[in-house]
Queue: 2 jobs
Job 1
Amino acid sequence: MSEYITIQVGQCGNQIGSEFWPLVLQEYGITREKSKSKPPEQSTTFNSFFQIHPDYKGESFNTIQDLVDSEVKARTILVDMETSVVSRYKNSYLRDIFDEEYIIVHYPGSGNNWAEGFCHYGPRFEEKILYSIRKAVENCDSLHGFLLMYSLGGGTGSGVGSYILKLLDDHFPHIDRFVTCVYPIGTEDVITCPYNMALATKELIEHASCVIPVENRALIDIVKKQASNTHSIDTMSFVAGCKPFQDMNSIIVNMLLNLTSGSRFTGDLNVDLSELVTNMVPFPNLPFLSCGLSPLTITSSNNKINLEEIFLQSSNLNNQLIKINASNNQLPLTLGTTLLARGDLFTISDMRSFVDRLQRKNCFTSWSKQAIKIGMCGVAPIGHRASMMTLFNTTAINGLLGKVKSDFTKLYQKRAHVHHYLQVAGFEEIFFEECLDVLCECIKSYQDIENRSMENIKVPRLIPEN
Ligand SMILES: Nc1nc2c(ncn2[C@@H]2O[C@H](COP(=O)(O)OP(=O)(O)OP(=O)(O)O)[C@@H](O)[C@H]2O)c(=O)[nH]1
Ligand SMILES: [Mg+2]
């Protein structure tokens, strides 16, 4: 089975991680206390996210203590330029599954400044970061990818995260780099966020194999809608103090668990993440995938299962983790589509009929209509019997990229806060110009494909499904 190394950077990245690890363990049937139920088969799948001692010949793991006794370590590297979130990891009940050599922290943080992260802390910690990554890579037999998590709003996630992404491209060019990044649109508490988002987006375009962006304003809407749901399972965040973002982060984690399920569990038609890159990224500078999920949260569901409803919800605009602007009343052009089903209830014929519906409803390029990728993982997510995740590479991403560009321009036209960046050694004014150029080029590439294709297509009108 494929192995992945996750790299969590900054407060947000590590807070997402604090939701991620307990849920991954829960999916493998590993709990704090010994439970009566037999854990699922782990022998071939558990090593995707965990390093097991090569001499270990024992049974499946039941409890966290079993992992500690057997020196199992999470394949994860924790990076933050402030200490608070990671030090809470060190005081948590999961502390022993994190390898000390994979933890890189410093004080006092990157001050919400991409330049501090990218130009100062990146080079300063390069050797240490590379040492940890190399060690984690050496502990893999079949490494398939790096999975990075960070927010683009502050200085560490956006700056050091971008620096690590570039390092991975330089040193491990043949290993895919997947980035789940939070665009804090809707929760802007950082005035320099537009600069940080734009500078980091340039690095994503240039160095990531595949990007799944998440917008906080989309997550907030989802969380508000779900607030009436009384069946939410405690997601067991083992790091106290993440409360304001806990519900939002658990949606991101749900997405990550679905995304990687095909690599971690057996199924009729498993989709590995590297297959996803091949199918979903038609050109290297257009790596952004929008993602929809159903169910969106980890809940204990007593409802009757309706597979069609699950499919419809997962492709519904309201269930997307980025805001798709439907105001021009025209469907965006789809460059790539993947449907990932979990649970053993879906059949191939169900999946074919969902594909048919997407093919009838959406607009495609001349090359992207016939081949819609499908994945079927036999193991359902916690609390559910079935789930569906849809991934689209569409020109609708220009809504997000356009917002990043306009927020950046608003600030940069007035040159507000520019001096904070210029005073960091290694940062030059041209970085601002370059990031704007790359952003505009990416937007234009999506736009050109849309314009060329739309000339030959009878454009369906957008009717959001409920
Ligand atoms: N969804 C989500 N957003 C977060 C979380 N933590 C912070 N944010 C948002 O991300 C932006 C700041 O990113 P942080 O991760 O706190 O910053 P950082 O990477 O630690 O960088 P510095 O603190 O500047 O060194 C803010 O605008 C927050 O609204 C989180 O756990 N989840
Ligand atoms: Mg921070």
Job 2
Amino acid sequence: MTEPHFTGDKRAIEVKSVSKSFGAYQALKSVSFDIGSNEFFTMLGPSGCGKTTLLRMLAGFESPDAGSILLNGKEVVAIPPHKRRVNTVFQSYALFPHMTLEQNVAYGLENLGWEQGRIKTRVGEMLERVHMGPMARRKPAQLSGGQRQRIALARALAPEPEVLLLDEPLSALDLKLRQAMRDELRTLQRDTGITFVFVTHDQEEALDMSDRIAVLGGGEVQQIGTPAEIYEEPVNRFVADFVGETNFLDVEVLDTTGREATSARPLAFPSPCRQPAQR
Ligand SMILES: Nc1ncnc2c1ncn2[C@@H]1O[C@H](COP(=O)(O)OP(=O)(O)OP(=O)(O)O)[C@@H](O)[C@H]1O
Ligand SMILES: [Mg+2]
């Protein structure tokens, strides 16, 4: 398993040897990684690999069977969701249909006991930030999917969380909108400086947006690294297969130096072929 190697100064999230089983099925097997403050961090992996389970643990909706989770250096396993400065955006927008957009964004702030004037200012700022100011009085049913997702983002960011969790937030959108929203999300993350933990099974999305990616497979972290590291130097066949547009070639290995192997010429490909050595 790859060791986590966040090298910045401040860790927003530390996941330490977290395991979780549902009945006899072990969904997560001693998963460890760190996420830096202000990082756009993505958990990438196929369906069923435990991405949502991990996010739910960061939010506090699920507890690990073993291991610990630290937010800003503090153990949070026993702390309920509403006492963590963490918010989630889901694939389905989960907006309140009977409320206007501004009421939807204001809702969480009212629950936190913010004073009315402060709420009004913050709601206005957030709607502007996601380019939805002119539609403030509409209801969710009068919006497109992309617009609803922008409101869901505004609502989640309004209370100034330290961490925003995003569980496949773009997967209900069509391809063109998905690409536009990637840029918007990235800009939003940079402008707010909030730590984003983004979950997807779409490798292109992950490579395009992230500072670092954790590739999950079989309930384990297979590799953690920058998009370039993950794409260009997959540590094993699982990562290469899942992330790259890889062609696997059966070759005879002639020599290995460090992590590189020199192989005999496979049919119809130039020689020598260089590829990461298998572990
Ligand atoms: N409450 C639960 N009870 C039983 N099994 C569960 C429960 N929650 C998750 N699982 C199982 O744990 C595994 C991981 O689920 P999880 O939802 O975390 O996957 P995922 O990576 O988010 O998948 P997807 O990409 O399809 O959303 C799956 O095999 C799932 O069936
Ligand atoms: Mg999921």
